[in-house]
Write a structure and sequence with these properties.
single chain; 350 residues; alpha/beta; TIM Barrel; Type Iii Antifreeze Protein Isoform Hplc 12; 2 domains; nine-stranded parallel beta sheet; two-stranded antiparallel ribbon
Length: 350
């Protein structure tokens, strides 16, 4: 497990959570709209944009055979078959370099999910800063191996993965001497129900695979992302959209820019709440230190009088000596006269 960069943003232990806006199908087949969305991502406070790089033909066949038909209970059933859906959702490749350029101009990191080897070649040419392996590609070993050879950071989504499949993917990447790996806890349901998230797996992934771990959030709302951060997630990925549009096939579970900004703000608040591992008392708390107890004279005490529980007491405030000395003082003689209400000092009995 190690820290590394995506663009100029450092990911890993003791780093701010890396927030990724997944553009997915929110391009609406409109470049101007997409570039506007990228600029809104920056305003939301996110760290990066992510695209998806495929065509209908690189991901499926144009076929109406039963295997390629979309089930009637699917939210995408109106597209009839997979080819129609992916053809609608695919972001034109010729726009992706322009989108990356816009992201770079406004200091956003940028990368994509390739869905076949030709997409990796293309993304290398246009300078993708990292790669994500989408959940359905977890067993696409030729793709994973090709991505690993780039030596760039690799994010592995696990929504459809068994433990063995995750382990195998990590081994393939490490065999290529690439250890820049993030495993994303993911639930591949759109939208996801809270009861299916199982965010305790964030700690399990960290232990089992010795990688950085994040969360790909398909829920409605921002609470799960904040909880994931509190459990050690170094990355949060969530779909974003610019308003509502029937053109966007992911519209029904994507966050609009206002919702996304709220999520980022809550993540940053969560990080401030979590703070650091330290015993140091915060500056703002130090003014309450005088509320601690110390030892005071509760009667006038004569010189050579014996200290007892009747003439000294552990009380507030804190300006006398610490209560840890109370048992040591009892039975000793006072070296000087001490007035009621006076702080007891070490030189009064040592």
């Amino acid at each position: 497990m190690k820290n590394f960069y995506i663009g100029n943003k450092k990911l890993g232990k003791n780093q701010k959570c890396f927030v990724v806006a997944e553009i997915s199908a929110s391009h609406n087949k409109n470049l101007k709209h997409t570039l506007k969305l990228v600029r809104h991502v920056k305003k939301c406070g996110a760290d990066a944009i992510k695209l998806q790089t495929y065509t209908a033909d690189t991901i499926t066949l144009k076929s109406n055979k039963n295997d390629f038909l979309i089930k009637k209970n699917s939210p995408w059933s109106s597209f009839k078959n997979l080819w129609n859906l992916y053809n609608k959702a695919a972001l034109p490749w010729k726009w992706q370099k322009i989108i990356f350029r816009e992201a770079k101009k406004i200091n956003l990191s940028f990368f994509s999910s390739p869905f076949d080897e030709s997409a990796v070649d293309f993304l290398e040419r246009i300078g993708s800063q990292a790669y994500k392996i989408a959940s359905p590609e977890i067993n696409h070993i030729p793709l994973i191996k090709k991505v690993a050879k780039t030596k760039k950071p690799i994010i592995i989504s696990t929504g459809l993965a068994s433990k063995n499949e995750i382990s195998n993917a990590v081994k393939v990447i490490r065999r290529e001497k690439n250890n820049k790996i993030i495993i994303l806890k993911c639930t591949s349901a759109y939208p996801s129900e809270y009861s299916d998230l199982n965010l305790k797996m964030i700690n399990t992934f960290t232990k089992d695979f010795k990688t950085l771990v994040g969360f790909s959030d398909h829920t409605v709302g921002s609470l799960p992302a904040s909880i994931a951060v509190s459990m050690g997630s170094c990355m949060i990925e969530k779909h974003i959209k610019l308003g509502s549009s029937k053109e966007n096939v992911d519209n029904f579970f994507s966050s609009d820019v206002n919702e996304f900004k709220k999520m980022v703000d809550q993540i940053r608040s969560t990080e401030r709440i979590l703070g650091k591992k330290t015993y140091k008392i915060p500056k703002n708390s130090k003014k309450s230190l005088d509320g601690k107890r110390s030892i005071y004279a509760v009667r006038d005490i004569k010189k050579d009088e014996i200290f007892t529980k009747l003439n000294i007491k552990v009380i507030r405030p804190t300006y006398g000596i610490s209560p840890i000395y109370f048992e040591k003082i009892l039975g000793k003689k006072a070296k000087k006269k001490i007035a009621l209400g006076s702080r007891i000092k070490l030189e009064y009995f040592n």
